[in-house]
């Protein structure tokens, strides 16, 4: 399979096995659901009646005091008592096999190419931190600056710092890409080096 770089109009060869895969919607959905679930911390916690500090002694005798009967100061109906159905620490982690994850990523990249949302450029380079220069460079690549993900092979501080004030443009290296940020962004811009590294990893 051939792709043409936007800036130099060179043709690059990429593997059909990775970038021309039939879309498996159920697999992609499962991987995205797993990724989002794994981001949840599940750290909310409350104390039930066995965890609240206090005596287990009956506060007063059952009859004759004029009070309602009570068996413990830790009862959920008492002030500062335990919570009836307390929330505890839990894990939302959903395991996905490596083969499934890679297959889903191949499906996503293939669909990006079919929808013309993946743009390949020879190089993205800035020699200083300047947001104005960065915006001009992006405008030369695509007209719409809304929801753009830029994939580079290695961290480039000039690119990252120049794009930091543009909240709808994100820059990441190959190791940081995931199924969610590939799908939620409208345009994916990748350098030739980065797309070759993606090919090696998948």
Can you give keywords for this protein?
single chain, 202 residues, alpha/beta, four-stranded parallel sheet
Structural summary, described in words:
This protein is α/β, with parallel strands linked by helices. The protein has seven helices and six strands, in the order E-E-H-H-H-E-H-E-H-E-H-E-H. A four-stranded parallel β-sheet has the order 3-6-4-5. The protein has a two-stranded antiparallel ribbon with strand order 1-2. Helix 5 links the parallel strand 4 and strand 5. The mean pLDDT is 91.
What is the helix/strand order? EEHHHEHEHEHEH
Major β-sheet strand ordering: 3-6-4-5
Mean pLDDT: 91
Give the class from helix and strand content and strand pairing: alpha/beta
Largest sheet properties: 4 strands, parallel
Portion of residues in beta strands equals 5-15%
Short recap of the structure:
The chain is of the alpha/beta class and 202 residues long. The chain contains 7 helices and 6 strands, in the order ββαααβαβαβαβα. Helix 4 (131-141) packs across helix 5.
């Amino acid at each position: 399979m051939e792709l043409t770089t936007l800036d130099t109009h060179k043709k690059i060869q990429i593997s059909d096995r990775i970038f021309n895969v039939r879309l498996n919607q159920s697999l992609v959905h499962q991987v995205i659901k797993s990724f989002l679930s794994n981001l949840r911390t599940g750290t909310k916690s409350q104390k039930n009646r066995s965890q609240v500090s206090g005596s287990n002694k009956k506060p007063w005798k059952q009859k004759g005091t004029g009070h309602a009967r009570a068996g413990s100061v830790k009862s959920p109906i008492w002030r500062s008592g335990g919570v009836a159905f307390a929330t505890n620490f839990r894990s939302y982690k959903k395991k996905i096999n490596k083969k499934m994850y890679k297959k889903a990523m191949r499906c996503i990249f293939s669909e990006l190419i079919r929808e013309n949302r993946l743009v390949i450029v020879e190089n993205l380079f800035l020699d200083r931190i300047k947001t104005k220069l960065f915006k001009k460079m992006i405008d030369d690549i695509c007209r719409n600056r809304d929801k753009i993900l830029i994939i580079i092979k290695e961290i480039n501080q000039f690119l990252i710092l120049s794009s930091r004030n543009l909240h709808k443009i994100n820059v990441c290296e190959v190791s940081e890409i995931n199924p969610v940020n590939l799908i939620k962004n409208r345009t994916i811009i990748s350098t030739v080096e980065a797309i070759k590294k993606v090919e090696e990893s998948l």
